Amino acid sequence: MQSNLFPSDSPNKTASLFAEIVFDRPLDQAFTYAVSEQLIDQIEVGKRVRVPFGRGDRTTVGYCVGLTDEPPGRSVKEIVAVLDDEALLTDSLLRLTRWMADYYLCGWGQVLNAVVPAAARDQAGLVKRAFVEAVPEAELASPIVNLPPKQLAILKALREANQPIEAQRIKRQLQVTDAPLKALLQRGLIRQARRRIEKLSQAEPHADYPPIQLNEEQRTAWEAIAPFVQRGEFRSFLLHGVTGSGKTEVYLRAIEEVIRQGKQAIVLVPEISLTPQTVQRFSGRFGEVAVLHSHLGDADRGSHWRRVFQGKVQVVVGARSAVFAPTRNLGLIVIDEEHESSFKQDTTPRYHGRDVAVMRARLENVPILLGSATPSLESWYNTSRGAYTLLSLSKRVMDRPLPPVHLLDLRHQPLRRGRPSALSDALVYAMQQALDQGGQVILLLNRRGFATHIHCPSCGHVEACRFCDLAMTYHKLKDLMLCHHCGYEQEPLKKCSQCGRSAVRYQGLGTEKLEVEIQERFPGRTVARMDSDTMRKPGSHARTLAAFRRGEIQILLGTQMIAKGLDFPNVTLVGVVNADVALHMPDFRSSERTFQLLSQVAGRAGRGSNGGRVLIQTFNPEHPCIAHVVTHDYVAFVQSELAHRREYQYPPFQRLARVVVRARQPQQAADFADQLAKAFETGLQTLRQQGPAEVRLLGPAEAAVFRLKGVYRYHFQLQSPSPGTLHKLLRLVRPMLTPPSGVEFVVDIDPVNML
Ligand code: ADP
Ligand code: ZN
Predict the structure, then answer these.
(1) How many independent structural domains does the chain possess?
(2) Residues 330 and 388 in one domain
(3) Cα gap 334→316, rounded to integer Å
(4) Euclidean distance between the first and final Cα of the chain, in Å?
(5) Which CATH number covers residue 136?
(6) Which neighbouring-strand residues pair with 130?
(7) What is the DSSP letter of 464?
(8) 63 and 133 together in one domain
(9) If you count Cβ atoms within 10 Å of the first and of the last residue's Cβ in the chain, which end, N or C, has fewer?
(10) How many whole angstroms separate alpha carbon 529 and alpha carbon 544?
(11) 566: domain range?
């Protein structure tokens, strides 16, 4: 503040350039800094800088998001250093991230930090190497020099090369040691340069995937998209195609056109379907493809990122965060399985990859193609109100039928050895038959572990996690009780922890127990289990699928991991062990999720010429979300579900925001939730004075899982037909109160996780 009183002491009185800097903090504004003479050549929008910031002026890393020569009218601090050689962000990514900060109500710097992978920031994947080159001035001064032979050989080689060469390479090629190089350096005839060079791990070889003649429905879909790809014009398309209808071929056709134009395409797929099979469809058609996913090492991620940035690759395939791929010449975005909830990020910034992708397409004026056999209700609704264009593939390729689906009513299931069996007789019989005919079987059970609850027959107590209000699951191989939410582990109990009277019972069926039962019932068949316990090691997912493809595995059982995207022609039976797992979750999307999961897994059957069928075990055969799977009737399901959503004012008819208050002390959480409720009241009054504002506020209420990972949570739910109204209200309320230390206040716009 001193410098304000004595302007002549101001460190930046001569500065003619000022930078706008944002930080990885929940702050709305950017901060202005002066750029000193020495840094003028280095500073650029999109680079990171080190600046004094906050209490005690600690140097902090921030992103430069703007430059101006307009003095801010007050003294400002100076940038200490510019950290990047090259800007990490394109203009369009800057605009997109600015929008995200506004829409998701978080700091711009927080968004940038999530968007630029650490690997790119740290220049991972680049190795620093010593280079040497001939000094041109020395060559002009004395073209011919008298030197010992080794030095002469090096000098000649470098002068001929006329560019820096790696020192190691020169030494290897000319069979010399460091000594002659050092001598030349001392004579000033050559000089050293350190350079970063790219280290790319060996790309996987890709088998050719030649183009397929589009069928009529595929061609119609492509012809609708084509003009937008050719002109470069924004439009959102929803490609609703039943499982096995050849949606990917439509994506590939569109990307082909993008490549022809010399532009780039981004393809987003759910992390779990980022299998070699998926990637090879793209690399087999187009050659080099940049793959971005969370298992990549930093070095590989960094080099893929850079190759996209430099325009060296035209096709990017990746999970959620690939929506930020730094393409400078975007021509198209594709989102496969657009209904997947994994496109939503559940940490700050809490963005939805699909919605961000649509915004990016709009900002860069390119078409976007969303595909699914079971589109989200949001996207479907968008087609009916004209925001998206609907394209349909109603039939499977090659006139293959959709598999017949039968329900097995578990309410009338006889006991096996006095207990309910995992598999009904009808399912066992169908499995036997399929296997005898040389087919393969996929079994879905969306619950991992051995026993899914541990309870006391005397007092009824269910063993719960010490940190969460959730039941513990018993894992037999580890011989541990595990909490699936926080990872807390405990030795298995013999006696009830509550009353101590009885031995506890291990009940409920998980994939681990199912595996044992299947091995017992199908001796001599190879069974593989795919869930997050068995698929921990990178590459194990791909290995299991490859073995299944080769027919080395006859029965593949697993969680939702096996439900998606797999194209195995020899699967003639799909069994669903318990369709009701997710049906009764306290979440307004539980029906939608159940319908999607069942339809997706059913779609794995009958993809080859041998046909196939689906058996679904359920206690709720009449529930619409299960009944409509039998008839493969997405539209009928959507109509019944939309009616509910309209009645209860849920998305897609209303926009939702969720506010969660979290604290380790339940009282602290409750107190702050009460204050927040009052602030919402005041905020609503203010808002309504400004004009009509349709907002419904629910809460505070305990979250469905009140205590999670040792943290107590209250939540509010805000509903409004307009997202703008929700934003206004939240912007009014936020500055009204600061959570005390130990209390957190989280805003989630368009929430997906309601627990
Ligand atoms: P979806 O993603 O819609 O479930 P896929 O794109 O996986 O379907 O296609 C299923 C299979 O059909 C793939 O093996 C693909 O190679 C094949 N296929 C796609 N289009 C055609 C076509 N026009 N003619 C013949 N086979 C096709
Ligand atoms: Zn827990």
Answers:
(1) 5
(2) yes
(3) 10
(4) 48
(5) 1.10.10
(6) 194
(7) B
(8) no
(9) N
(10) 9
(11) 405-448+510-644
pLDDT at 126 over 80: no
Domain assignment present for 734: yes
Cβ of 245 below 6 Å from ligand 1: yes
DSSP 3-state of 742: coil
Cα distance between residue 510 and residue 516, in whole Å: 10
Tokens of 305: 């990122």
H or E segment to which residue 46 belongs = none
Quickly count: other Cβ atoms within 10 Å of residue 437's Cβ.
Answer: 10
Q: Where are the alpha helices (DSSP H) in 474-589?
A: 511-521, 540-549
Among 209, 242, 249, say which to mutate for ligand 1: greatest number of ligand atoms within 8 Å of CB.
Answer: 249
Is 95 inside any structural domain? no
Question: Which atom in ligand 1 lies closest to the alpha carbon of residue 336?
Answer: 2
Together in a domain, 235 and 283: yes
Of 139, 147, 201, 193, nearest to 170 by C-alpha is 193
Does 310 share its domain with 324? yes
Q: Is 443 helix (H, G, I), strand (E, B) or coil?
A: strand
DSSP state of 491: P
Using CA atoms, how far residue 309 sits from 329, 344, 552, 569, in Å, is: 9, 24, 42, 38
pLDDT 10s digits, 96-125: 999 999 999 999 999 999 888 775 666 555
Q: What ligand has the least distance to the C-alpha of 711?
A: 2
Confirm or reject: Cβ of 249 under 6 Å from ligand 1: yes
The whole-model pTM stands at 0.87
Q: Are residue 548 and residue 626 in the same domain, yes or no?
A: yes
DSSP structure string for 338-391: TT-GGGB-SSSS--BHHHHHHHHHHHHT-EEEEEESS--HHHHHHHHTTSSEEE
Specify the range with the lowest mean pLDDT, choosing from 48-52, 119-123, 165-169, 364-368: 119-123
Same domain, 681 and 533: no
CATH code where residue 709 lies:
3.30.70.600
Rg (CA), the chain: 30
Shared domain check, 155 and 79: no
Q: Which of 212, 393, 564 to mutate to test the pocket of ligand 1 (most atoms within 8 A of CB)?
A: 212
Closest CA to 471 of 461, 462, 480: 462
Alpha helices in 619-665 (DSSP H): 624-630, 634-647
- DSSP strand pairing (743-749 vs 655-663): antiparallel
Largest CA distance in the chain: 100
- Please report, for the domain that includes residue 424, its CATH number: 3.40.50.300
**CB 279 near ligand 1, within 6 Å:** no
- Assess if residue 208 is contained within a domain: no
Pair 389, 241 in one domain: yes
Q: How many residues does the chain have?
A: 755
Residue 14 alpha carbon to ligand 2 centre in Å: 58
Most confident of 148-152, 401-405, 411-415: 401-405
